[in-house]
Amino acid sequence: MPLAQTSTTVPVVVNDDLCIADKGCTVCVDVCPLDVLRIVETDDGGKTAYMKYDECWYCMPCEADCPTGAVTVNLPYLLK
Amino acid sequence: MDEILDGLTQIDCDILVIGGGTAGPMAALKAKRKNPKANVVLLDKANVKRSGAISMGMDGLNNSVIPGYATPEQYTKEITIANDGICDQAAVYRYAQECYGIIQELDEFGIRFQKDENGEYDVKKVHHIGTYVLPMPNGDTVKKALYRQLRKARINIINRYMATRLLTGEGRVAGAICVNTRSAEFLVVRAKAVIMGLGAAGRLGLPTSGYLYGTYENASNSGEGYAMAYHAGAGLANLECYQINPLIKDYNGPACAYVAGPMGGYTANAKGERFIECDYWSGQMMQEFYDELQGGKGPVYLKLNHLAEETVAEIERVLHIVERPTRGHFHQGRGTDYRKQMIEMHISEIGFCSGHSASGVFVDEHARTTIPGLYAAGDMANVPHNYMLGAFTNGAFAGLDAADFIADVDFASFDQGEVDAERTRVLAPTKRDDGIPPNQIEYKTRRLVNDYLQPPKVTAKMELAQKRFEEVREDMDQGMYVRDSHELMRALEASSILDCADMAAAASLYRTESRWGLYHNRVEFERDNDNWFCHTILTKGDDGKPAHRKQDVKPYVVEIAEDEKDAYDKQRVSATVAAE
Ligand SMILES: Cc1cc2nc3c(=O)[nH]c(=O)nc-3n(C[C@H](O)[C@H](O)[C@H](O)COP(=O)(O)OP(=O)(O)OC[C@H]3O[C@@H](n4cnc5c(N)ncnc54)[C@H](O)[C@@H]3O)c2cc1C
Ligand code: SF4
Ligand code: SF4
């Protein structure tokens, strides 16, 4: 039984123009209590944080601790 | 990151503290200060900097006993009554005596508490009888302040390791088995004493939004504390006394009568009428809430729209920046404004948490569990109505006692077979080629919890739940499948959640009476003081299933007069207060 690819809209968005992951920043990934953020390579060869797993408590340490204000926490669609 | 690696490391420490949320850090600090030579390890599934219920901060201390406002005797009496009499008072009384000292220590850490113009603590009345709520104007700094202290005290912090099982041997605790949440590598920690502060079982029921992580509790608290204690053979008390909270509908955060109440806000029915006397969370209060919803007078609302602009602005300032700072976004998205309309509330999913009830791993006034060397504090230990200051204070008791305990003992030896068995169990979902992902196992378990375990409790429904849980367990054991170590963490959580669901059903079936208002409303049974004025203790039976026994409530330290005992039963307002 192979797994399906069911899409889901994620609540946390990162502005990759502001994100300085390519300078080594991982702050949001480090602080998230649910461990749902990761760093990925962008199309232009840079790096950015993004929400990999839709498992968010909408608690906000990622947004509060980001040094450049790149993270915005929205409410998960199911409850907003 | 996230690939599954094969690895196992073993380390030794004197005291292992599991859970770096609220109780855990205080336990680690106290132990280290008492015995600076001790090697104290604080281990967390998340990152201690931002983990646990107080991750973003707290609005205030819900249960502070401050000289001049309340006495330890008054507090002990109130909590005993709020908890329907089932309370070993020694732990509550010791907390009430010593929590003021902890407040002063927190003050020294840089956490400010609200004072009036005379420089006295500005304590507010929210409870039915006494005055205990102390606001924290810079409550958003609490976790940072705590973290600074941990660094200063050179506590050894290990992040992103999830504890899965305790090790025991020679009749006492021997350590714990932990798994890295980003690599699946194992860490076996040998310890002379273990302190558990893993928080509530917050992912037991499913929120009505259907979003698995939209829980009231911090969603990383998935019940491992209870599951680990159970599998190690510790006693768990009164698990049938669920936690159920009155929350903002869908957002699922506290409506915060504790903040808004003293400023004139209250819980109202659809007509804007007050129907409960006191907004302090108790089972009796939740029963009235439920009756109002079911009785055709709902929805139930948080009512602030009769208050002056400055008051509403002040409430917003507190509620929208500290505890759950996304709350402002939520209201904005819905177009709701406290000034203009009442805010819809509802009843939360069920969970285990002593914060507002009485369930949890059984402990005494030293935070000792029934296993020597094993301690528990905070939301997962059964000291009733703990809240944040209870987590700090009982965490302190655990740390202090553990520092003494390790002085006289060496490591207990344990059976290496336990480690091998746990590795096999943990890694099983990584060995399959396909199967059921953990989110489906979890969703199904929690949906069944809602369908069959949510009060009012019905025997036939709970028995059905047990049957269905067995089927899910079979699926989990034989067919759960994960692709990376992050999913493996979720798989292990699904397993703890299922253990907690089994315990919730078994404990609820055992107590054949109704008690604690809605928390244990068993429709076929009346309250029965003759047979059930006692704790129920759940342990793992020889057949691997929950076993039960009754345990006497210890003689009260603070006597309660006959006519005081039902103070919390009288929650409904007698003549309805008209809406403004
Ligand atoms: C939304 C909300 C609002 C609240 N408001 C107030 C208030 O205003 N005033 C008040 O007094 N109280 C309040 N409380 C209650 C108070 O916050 C809690 O009672 C207290 O913080 C609990 O502390 P704890 O140490 O038991 O749990 P937590 O602080 O939640 O810590 C548990 C820790 O265990 C870790 N953990 C979990 N599982 C594992 C595992 N398997 N391995 C390793 N680590 C693990 C978690 O990552 C976490 O760090 C509130 C609670 C919530 C949820
Ligand atoms: S904290 Fe901000 S800057 Fe750093 S990785 Fe995350 S989004 Fe990028
Ligand atoms: S809001 Fe909380 S759970 Fe969601 S990504 Fe940010 S830190 Fe993680």
TrEMBL record, chain A:
Q: Does the keyword Iron-sulfur apply?
A: yes
- Ranges where the 4Fe-4S ferredoxin-type domain occurs: 10-42, 47-76
Record's PROSITE patterns? 4FE4S_FER_1, 4FE4S_FER_2
Q: Which UniProt keywords apply?
A: Iron, Iron-sulfur, Metal-binding
Q: Which GO terms describe its molecular function?
A: iron-sulfur cluster binding; metal ion binding
The protein depicted here goes by the name 4Fe-4S ferredoxin
- The species this protein belongs to is Actibacterium mucosum KCTC 23349
TrEMBL record, chain B:
The record places domain Fumarate reductase/succinate dehydrogenase flavoprotein-like C-terminal at 449-558
Highest taxon of the lineage: Bacteria
Q: Name one Pfam family in it.
A: Succ_DH_flav_C
- Please list the GO terms describing molecular function: electron transfer activity; flavin adenine dinucleotide binding; succinate dehydrogenase activity
Q: Which residues form the FAD-dependent oxidoreductase 2 FAD-binding domain?
A: 14-382
UniProt keyword list: Flavoprotein, Oxidoreductase
Extract one GO BP annotation from the record. Answer: anaerobic respiration
Q: Name one GO cellular component term.
A: plasma membrane
Q: What is this protein called?
A: Oxidoreductase
Q: Species name for this entry? A: Actibacterium mucosum KCTC 23349
